[in-house]
Amino acid sequence: MKIEALKSLFKKHKELALSHRYITNKHIEPLLEKFDNSVWRETIGQSVLGKPIYGLKIGTGKKRVLMWSQMHGNESTTTKALFDLLNTLLANSSGVNDILESCTLYVIPILNPDGAEAYTRVNANEIDLNRDAQNLSQPESKVLRVVFNSFKPHFCYNLHGQRTIFSAGKRNKSAIVSFLSPAQDEGCTVTENRKVSMEIIAEMYRVLQELIPSHVGVYDDAFNLNCVGDTFQSENVPTILFEAGHYPGDYGREKTRELIYISYLSSLLYISKNEVTGAYYKPYFDIPENEKYFYDIIIRNAQFGTEKQDVAIQFQERLMGGRIQFIPKVVEIGDLNNFFGHKEIEVQGNEVKTVTGELLKIDSENVFVMIKNKKTSLISE
Description:
Layout: H1 3-13, H2 25-34, E1 39-46, E2 52-58, E3 63-68, H3 77-90, H4 97-102, E4 103-108, H5 113-118, H6 139-151, E5 155-161, E6 166-168, E7 177-180, H7 192-208, E8 216-218, H8 228-234, E9 239-244, H9 254-273, E10 290-292, E11 294-304, E12 307-320, E13 323-334, E14 340-346, E15 352-353, E16 368-371, E17 374-377
Parallel strand pairs: 3-4, 3-5, 5-9, 7-8, 11-14
Antiparallel strand pairs: 1-2, 2-4, 6-10, 7-9, 11-12, 12-13, 15-16, 16-17
Helix pairs in contact: 1-3, 1-9, 3-9, 7-9
């Protein structure tokens, strides 16, 4: 399917009830109620604090795809895109009917509802569910494992969001979308199973190059059997890690949402129309590895005594009044010539002070700064 057709489908079926970064059970439950009987909905378990964990099944095909989102509660972009995808499939939109005829999808939209409500990575017991694949110490981890065992997927989509610090390679290109075919052994062997997930990632990479050339990355595949993706891959189920990253200026991650949607749709169309054997995996290795070369803001050449130094600012995401606010925090002061800012402010040897007249320092939080006696906002929405 051509890019313009994919973009048109997104525009037509985008779920308008979901926006920005704070997505919880309360946001998705009214949407679940609206689905017709072509979506099988069930409560598959409860979180630590007793919140329901929902499972959705759609499609009649033999190829089974398991998708789960918000394993980390503060990573919601992939959840928004899931509802855009479901709307598209339910509308029997032209060109995508092959997916439901060839595939059966099982979707867990929010695996960690306690973390989603608190806007934290971890669950209510402060456990990272993505490091609990072997111990299965948490109810949410057990729920996912039960679904995996009973549904017996042929493909797994492990859906996440990544911080703004990542670049696609060692260059001034933010990693807007990233992927990984997780390792399934200590040697990170390129197994026949991994080749299958690599081939699907290579297809998504091809499609995304038309939209965000040089802005797609791949994660290091160091093996950790405690991670869910590595565990499922080690059990010979092709598994793909999706990471929704930062599109310039898009702190609400609405543009990234569209790109994740396009990744879902293009990959599912590929699976539905092809017997994916892993034969076409090699373009996966053309994808640059994620690096940590970005800050949200870099103030260049600020005067500190007799020296000029750069100031790196990273936004702290905080839940305030039911919405995520971005609070600028100074995290580094020094020579940052090898790093990039999503926003850069050149001050040409002027001092940069707080609104109370102090020079900036590490760990200080400043919504506004004073540059040449002018009040400047650092906030991005």
